[in-house]
Amino acid sequence: MTESEISVRSVRAFVRSRSRTRSSAVDRYVTAFCVAMFLAVLGDPLSGVLAGLAGPADPARMGAGVALIAMALTGFLAAARAAGPVMLSAPDASWLLLSPLDRRRLLGRTGRALVLVAVVAGAVLGLGMLAVLGAPDRLVWRLLGALVLGVSASVGGMALAVLGQASQSWQVWLTAAMAALLVLAVVAVSGQLRTVLAIAASAPLPAVAAAASGAALVSALLVRQAWASLDKIPAPVLVTASTRAGHVASAAAGVDPGGFTWIAEDNHWRARKLTSRRWPSLPAPFALAWQDWRRLARRPGRLATMFAAVALPAVLAQAGGSPAALGAAVLVGGLAVAAASTSGARRDGDNPALARLIGVGRRPALAARALLPALLSGAWTTMALAGLTLAGTGAGIGAGSESWWLFGPLVAPALAAGALRMVRRSPVDHSLPVIETAGGAIPLGPVLWAATGVDLALIGCLPAAIALTAPSAEMGAFLAAQAVTGLAVPAGYVWRAKGRAGG
Question: What's the pLDDT tens digit per position in 153-187?
């Protein structure tokens, strides 16, 4: 045992001995008991799911399933890179990071936590892979192989993210891996890999064992390299990641989901130098909303990602999604796109004094700020519904009609009104009572917070939601009803806004 390891252990023991929240044997027993109960409850439904995976899969849905798995792994890598991923608690980052303690030993606890997170994510990916490719024979061995492949991919990706935090050259490799996964998703959903996927689905067990062994070996090498690079991560990078993690933990502990948006927004703009340009000569309400357009133009990558996601409903359709799931995916995606372009309204709500100084009434300000989210959500939902029509699923959305895309422009105003209501809602009110239901206790404060904005969008998009989730050959009545509700709901929402902006 080295002296540096003894130093780290002795320091942590000293801190724990003087902590007011020291864990006792009872605490560890309760934790182990809760984990055991969770596994016992999860065992029965999980065994049913695994039993349903036996048998060959549908070859027509393999490409879309592999595309979804590739996009899920890409999202996991993007989340790992955005989180740090290596970080420390606030006290350790303030007092121990710059001390002469061995940094690799100091960061070892975080490394083990990252491995645990990656293993859980990899197990989910492995189950998804087995659901896509099927198990024509020997379910247990194919399940084991899929789990090894999934865990190897997620653990190796997490190790690559750690290496990217330590070196810019590894950051390039991480970006290349994410780009390769996106290319794989596009190629798979286009149907070019149908033969390859059919061969992989019926591969003999020795080939599956060889692939799993190779993936595990590559993953182990990356983990070893990542462990060796822990002491090479620059201290400012660790401090930044730790500060960001502390803010996220505070927002999570206070059940304040709105804080996550501000954290992401401030982290993006904090280190950037922006050029100053003359404000355009526009009428007062539109000049006030111009900042949202400029903010969107300064983030072309975000805009490209939003519109690249229009293919997700079509991919879900090819993977066998139900009409209800496809309709929900279209409307939820449109609402998310609309909410991503409403930071100006969010700042008006958080700083009403500054909004009052601008001298623009709340109604004109809301109407002007609704223009951009309505345009973006309308374009997104139109393209998504057109993609579903081109996908031609044979049942449900995309089958028997060329007019589904007409719902896109009609739901846009309602989605914009729902997005504005979402970003202007108050923080979670934890003083509200807890409702006892058959499924357990439900805190009313977070539920009302989550429903604010979504309720308005649902009311405004109700005809479209009914038509999309329960497709019918006669869409004229639904289109007419959606045209009325799509305009009436945002008009009523803006009309109810009285007084000055932020008042």
Answer: 999 999 999 999 888 889 899 999 999 998 988 88
Distance CA 303, CA 308 (A): 9
Q: Which two tokens stand for residue 287?
A: 């000049």
- Closest by alpha carbon to 233, among 77, 86, 82, 81? 86
Strands 134-135 and 55-56: antiparallel
Q: How far is it, in rounded angstroms, from Cα 152 to Cα 148?
A: 6
Confidence of residue 118 (pLDDT cuts 50, 70, 90): very high
Strands 134-135 and 434-437: unpaired
Between CA 111 and CA 87 the distance in angstroms is 9
Dihedral angle computed from the Cα positions of residues 172, 103, 244 and 303, in that order, rounded to the nearest 10 degrees = 0
* Predicted TM-score (pTM) of this structure: 0.78
**Three-state secondary structure call for residue 438:** coil
Burial class for 353, CB neighbours closer than 10 Å (0-12, 13-18, 19+): exposed
Torsion angles phi and psi, residue 393, rounded to 5: -65, -20
Residue 85, preceding peptide bond in cis (omega within 30° of 0): yes
Question: In this structure, are residues 150 and 126 in contact, taking their beta carbons and an 8 Å threshold?
Answer: yes
CA distance 320 to 60: 9
Rg of the chain over all Cα atoms, to the nearest angstrom: 26
Spell out a b/e string for 99-111, using b for 16 or more CB atoms within 10 Å of the CB, else e. Answer: eebbbbbbbeebb
The three-state (H, E, C) secondary structure of 380-437, written as one string? HHHHHHHHHHHHCCCCCCCCCCCCHHHHHHHHHHHHHHHHHHHHCCCCCCCCCCEEEE
Our measurement of the distance from residue 354's CA atom to the centroid of its chain's CA atoms, rounded to an integer in Å, reads: 32
**Those residues with Cβ within 8 angstroms of residue 197's Cβ, 6 or more apart along the chain or in another chain:** 59, 62, 63, 66, 133, 188
> Are residues 62 and 183 in contact, defined by beta-carbon separation less than 8 angstroms?
no
